[in-house]
Amino acid sequence: MASLFLANLAEHLRTFERLPALDAEIARAGSLIAQSLAADGKLLSCGNGGSAADAQHIASELTGRFIKERRPLAAVSLTTDSSALTCIGNDYSFDEVFARQVRALGRQGDVLLAISTSGNSPNVRRAAEEAQALGMPVIGLLGRDGGAIKTLSDVALVVPSDVTARIQEAHILIIHTLCGLIEHELQLA
Ligand SMILES: O=C(CO)[C@@H](O)[C@H](O)[C@H](O)[C@H](O)COP(=O)(O)O
Ligand SMILES: [Zn+2]
């Protein structure tokens, strides 16, 4: 049997070879977040499963640190409060777990990072709808054809792959790039 690792690596490299096409949109997303943070806005992030981990990852890079020594930056992942998630999921619906937190915490000028490899998770889509209603720009970190969330995104970063794991691997590269762009743009050394 051929090595699973070598097969995954080949698929990963094929996906990553196509990422240069996203360069300009990644730069736009980085500027959008940096401008919001510079104006006392904040980043809200959300996603399911591996993308929940990614939503937490970017929030921690900003509140904690990425590369530079600088002031903490305002970022909240909507995936971490188990009491809020279970209350909203139980009393309303799982589709509302992020949207209701966006309504509670989001303000005009904040940015929502909506992460979904299919682009179609209903709870992430609902969060994007609420953000739009509040006048918050939406950055969609997506995969496949971008799904319904693509049409709700001010900047849609759609990784050209149909494989969830490969899309997630590209998402992490994009998240680290966004952190670098934000630190550079804010010049908070
Ligand atoms: O990490 C993985 C698969 O690699 C899973 O946990 C995956 O994130 C979950 O199935 C998610 O529910 C998929 O949601 P989405 O990316 O389509 O929005
Ligand atoms: Zn995963």
Automatic annotation (TrEMBL):
- Extra remark beyond the main annotation: The reaction produces a racemic mixture of D-glycero-alpha-D-manno-heptose 7-phosphate and D-glycero-beta-D-manno-heptose 7-phosphate.
Q: At the top level of its lineage, which domain of life is listed?
A: Bacteria
Compartment list: Cytoplasm
Which amino acid positions bind substrate, per UniProt? Answer: N48, G49, G50, E61, N90, D91, S116, T117, S118, S121, Q168
Molecular function (Gene Ontology), one example: isomerase activity
Q: Write out the function statement from the record.
A: Catalyzes the isomerization of sedoheptulose 7-phosphate in D-glycero-D-manno-heptose 7-phosphate.
Q: Which UniProt keywords apply?
A: Carbohydrate metabolism, Cytoplasm, Isomerase, Metal-binding, Zinc
Q: What is its EC number?
A: 5.3.1.28
Q: What is this protein called?
A: Phosphoheptose isomerase
Q: What does the annotation say about its assembly with partners? A: Homotetramer.
Principal location class: cytoplasm
Q: How is the cofactor bound?
A: Binds 1 zinc ion per subunit.
